[in-house]
Amino acid sequence: MNILGISAFYHDSAACLVQDGTIIAAAQEERFTRKKHDFNFPHHAISFCLNQGGIKASDIDYVAFYDKPFIKFERILETYLAYAPIGIRSFIKAIPMWIKQKLFMKEFIKKELGFDGVILFPEHHESHAASAFFPSPFQRAAFLTMDGVGEWATTSYGVGNANGVQLLAEIHFPHSLGLLYSAFTYYTGFKVNSGEYRI
Ligand SMILES: [Fe+2]
Q1: What is the residue-averaged pLDDT of the chain?
Q2: Does the pLDDT value for residue 97 go beyond 90?
Q3: CA–CA distance from 69 to each of 3, 20, 65, 106, 145 (Å)?
């Protein structure tokens, strides 16, 4: 069973290959392109992972993308609308990429990979929880996830059990510890989604 995980088009694009429940390879695109926080489709990272696993795209059983683009798009539209006309410049900058790539992610991934199988879109916080719980030594554990924002969730908790994670409760955008952190990053003159690590 070959599962390829992909994150792309936000920041720090990356790929990961899991074979029969074992992580075989994981890599960030920036390591190959030498472009800090590279957010483009992770062609290089994917090739690296497939090479490490000794497989081709046609051997992949499932591709998993790290969030649900349509729900995220709904949140972005609602937010722009709530604050309009403030944010119009950022809106004009962001929308073409959404229409060109993010909303048609399934078709985009199929085309880019030459893959015709199943593509899964777990919720963003499910992905965070899974990335921590599944490689952990625990069969059952509580998890707490706090980030900037996924689709709507900014903080969530739940239970990981054997091969599943269950979200029990979440706090929604705009109430976000991560975005508050980013606001301070911006205020102190650093770049958002980058300078947080320095601060
Ligand atoms: Fe996140």
Answers
A1: 94
A2: no
A3: 20, 27, 9, 10, 19
